[in-house]
Amino acid sequence: MSTLAHRKIRCTVVAQFPLALRRRMQPTTLATMRAIPSTRKQAQSKEVIPGVAVRQDGTRFPIDTTPLVVGRHERTNIVLKDPEASASHVQLTATALGIEIEDMDSANGTLLTTDMLGERIDWTKAQRVERIWVKHPVRLRCGNSELKIFPEADFTNRDSDPEPSGEEDFPLLTGKSPPMRALFRNLRSFAPTELSILITGPTGVGKERVARAIHALSARRRGPFVTVDCGALPATLADSELFGHVRGGFTGATEDRASPFELAKGGTIFLDEIGELPLDLQPKLLRAIETREIKRVGSNQYIKIDVRIVAATHRDLIREINDEASFRSDLYYRTAEFTVHVPSLRDRIEDLPLLLSSLAEEEKARIAGGPTKEAEDVAENIVKRISPESMDRLMRHDWQGNIRELRSVVLTGLVLWPRGPLPLEQRLSDPLGKMASSNPPPEPLKDVEKNYWRRMAIYYNGKVSHIAAQAGVDRRTAKKKLIEFGAFDWSDLLDED
Ligand SMILES: Nc1ncnc2c1ncn2[C@@H]1O[C@H](COP(=O)(O)OP(=O)(O)OP(=O)(O)O)[C@@H](O)[C@H]1O
Question: What is the pTM of this model?
Answer without folding.
Answer: 0.60
